[in-house]
Amino acid sequence: MQYVVCLLAFGSPSSLPFAHARIKSSNFTYIFASCHTPKEERSCRPKHAKPTASCHEERRFGRGCIMQLSRRQFIVGIGGAGALGALGGVLGGCAPQQASENQGTGIAEGNGYMPAQWDEEADIVIVGGGGAGGAAAYAGRKAGVDVLVLESQSSTTFSSTALSGDSICFVGTEEQAAAGIEDSAEAFMQECLELGEHANKEEVIQTYLDHNLEYYEILKEIGVQFEGVVMLDTYTPRTLNFSSAEHQQLLTEATQELGARYLFETSGKRLYVDAAGTVCGVEASKDGKTIAVKARKAVLMCTGGITRNKEMLDECIAGLGDVDAGSGVGNTGEGHIACLQLGSKFHGRPSVYSPEGMHPGSVSMEGFAQMYDFGAIKVNINGDRFMDESLGWCAAATRATLEQPQKDGRYFNWQIVDQIGYDLAKECTDTRGVREENEGYFVSAPSLEELQNLIGAPNLVETVNRYNSDIIAGNADAQGRTTLTGEGSDAIRPLDSPPYYAYANVPVITFAPTVGIEIDGEGRALDQYGNPIGNDRLYLAGEIMLRNLIGNKYKIFGLAVGGGCTFGVYCANKAAQLENWDA
Q: Judging by DSSP bridges, how do beta strands 229-230 and 239-241 pair with one another?
C-alpha cells in the first residue's frame, strides 16, 4: 500500500532545496508545498530585472538573500518510519517550540536507514577521488587506517582539480619568503572575509590557516613542482602556479602506493544511518547494482559541486543550467542530495556564478582569456555593453550575461580591447592573458569600423566612442565602471590605440564554490539549527563545502584547490582518531 503525506512549508519556495518535489521513501510519498513567501525575501528581488549589474545588486542577491530553513520549514528525513514520525513535528512546528533532543542527527526518531548486510567496508570511506578525496585518502593511509575511495568515473584524470586553472593557494610558503613577500594568518583572515563579503565563516578559515601547510608539504613530498608566486586579485601575493593535471596524477598514484583502495565507476548515492543518527556507511551503485559500503570510523564526502545538475543550477539562477559545463563530469550534486536527506543546510544559491572568458571554440583552459582585466569592455552580439566589467566573476555578472541575446543557441559576448590592453595581456604570466595557446582566437582589425564589420556587431563603434568620450570628459560611466578590476586596481582608460581586438566569450560553469553544504570548523556537516549531523562521523571536504571558506565571491585564486585539499587532509586525520562505531 502506498501512502501520500503532504508537508506544508511556510516559507519561500527558494528556501527549500527541491520545493514542490516528490520524494519517495519506503511506502510513503512526501509532497512538498510552499505556502508563503516572507516579505523580507520578496523585497530582495526587483520586479523588473535590468540588463545591467552593479556591486550593490550583487550584495543584494549574494549576501543579503542567503536562504535558511527555519523551524517552520522542513527537509524530509530518511526511512519510512523515521520520516513519518517527523510529520507531527512539522505540523506542530508552525508555532514556536523547543528543538527535540536529537535535532543534531538531522532525522526524526525511528529506524534509520541501514542495509541487510555489508558488501565492502573500511575504516574511512571517501566518496569522490578528486583533489580533496585524494588528499584525504593520502592522509588517512599516513595515519595508518584502512581507506576506501568510491570514485564515480573510470579514473581521476578528469576531476575538477585536474581541470582547474593551474594554481593553488597557501599562506606562508617558502616561495613567498624567497620572493620577499610578507604574509600572515591575520592578513589572510582579513582579506578572505572582505573578498568573500563576510559570507564565509571565521572558524573554517582558521582551520584552513592552521593546517594548510600540511598539504603544502604533502605536495612537495609527492613531487609536485611549483613555478613561483603570482598576484591574482588579492592584496597579498600567495597563489602558486603549478600543473593541475600533474597534481592530480601524482596525488592519485601516491595514494594508491600507500595502499588506499579505489572502487572506480562507483557512485555514492545515499548515506546509511542507524536509529541514533550515526552515519555508518554509504549506499553506492556499481555496474547497475547497489552495494552497501560500511565506514567503521567515518564517511568523508568529497563529491565536488553541482555544475552537472541542471535542476540545482536553474534553482540558483534561471537559465544557468543551460550554460556549458566545463567541470569534471562527476559533479552531479549527488553528494549534496545525500547530505540534504539527513537535514543539512544548503546555502549560497543566490551567489552562484559562471566564470567568463572561455572561447566557444575551445574545450580547455587553452581558450581562456580574461581581457577585461587589461582594460577590455564586454559587449553583446549587437555591440552593446551590458555590465560593469570590473565586477569580474560574480552572480550579478552572470545574471547580466544570461539576459543578453544568444548566438547559435548559446549565451555569448565579445571582449573588446585596443593595442595597449593587448600588449599588457601578453606580458601577463598566468592564464588570464594572451598566450601562444589562445592567440589564434583573437579577431583584429586596424579600425573600430572594420572590427565592427568583422564580428557583425552593428553598435560597436557607437558603444566604444561613448565609453571613450565619457572617460575623457570625466563623466560617470554608463555601467558604473571606474576601475579595471575593482577597488585598488588601475582606473579605466579610453580604448583609442589601434589596432583593435575582439575575443569571443561564452560562460562556462567550471565550478560552483560559492554554494554548498554548511560545515563547522571541524569539517562536520551541519543541520538547519547549526548542529553536527551524523554523530561526528560525517565530514566534508572540497567543493561541496568551499562556500564556508570562500564566501560570496571567489577572489583568492587557488584557494578552491588549496582549501578543498587542506580540509581533505584535516578531516581524514580527525576521522582516523575515532573509535569504530560498531566496536
A: antiparallel
Q: Which three cell numbers stand for residue 539?
A: 565530514
Q: Is 104 exposed, middle or buried (0-12, 13-18, 19+ CB in 10 A)?
A: buried
Pick among 1.10.600.10, 3.40.50.1110, 3.90.700.10, 3.40.50.150: CATH of 365-506: 3.90.700.10
Range(s) within the chain of domains with CATH label 3.90.700.10: 365-506
Burial of 310: CB neighbours in 10 Å, binned 0-12, 13-18, 19+: middle
Residue with cell 593511509: 141
What does residue 392 show for φ and ψ, rounded to 5 degrees? 70, -145
Cis bond before residue 446 (omega within 30° of 0) = no
Residue 73's pLDDT band (boundaries 50, 70, 90)? very low
Q: Look up residue 352 and give its amino acid.
A: V
The Cα–Cα gap between 120 and 282 comes to: 10
Helix (H), strand (E) at residue 397:
helix 395-402
Q: How many distinct helices (H) and strands (E) make up the chain? A: 17, 21
Report the range of poorest mean pLDDT among 76-85, 145-154, 165-174, 354-363: 76-85
Residue-wise pLDDT for 33-52, tens only, equals: 333 333 333 333 333 333 33
Cα–Cα distance between 568 and 131 in angstroms, integer? 8
Mean pLDDT computed over 465-491: 95
Q: What is the dihedral of CA 127, 131, 134, 136, to 10 degrees?
A: -80
- Record the cell numbers describing residue 129, joined without a space: 577521488
Domain at 122-353+513-576, CATH class:
alpha beta
Chain position carrying cell 594508491: 256
DSSP state for residue 196 in the 8-state scheme: T
Question: What cell does 519 get?
Answer: 560545515
Residues of the chain with CATH 3.50.50.60: 122-353+513-576
For residues 539 and 107, the answer to whether their CB atoms sit within 8 Å is no
DSSP line for 65-99: T-----TT-----SSHHHHHHHHHHHHHTTS--PP
Q: Report which residue type is found at 537.
A: R
Q: What does the pLDDT look like over 231-259, one tens digit per residue?
A: 655 678 999 999 999 999 999 999 999 99
- Residue in this structure with the C-alpha cell 563623466, named with its chain if needed: 475
CA angle 79/85/87 to nearest 5° reads: 110
CA distance 219 to 216: 5
| Contact indicator for 572, 124 with CB cutoff of 8 Å | yes
Contact between residue 462 and residue 36 where contact means Cβ atoms under 8 Å apart: no
* CA 8 to chain centroid: 30
* Cα distance from N-terminal residue to C-terminal residue, the chain: 38
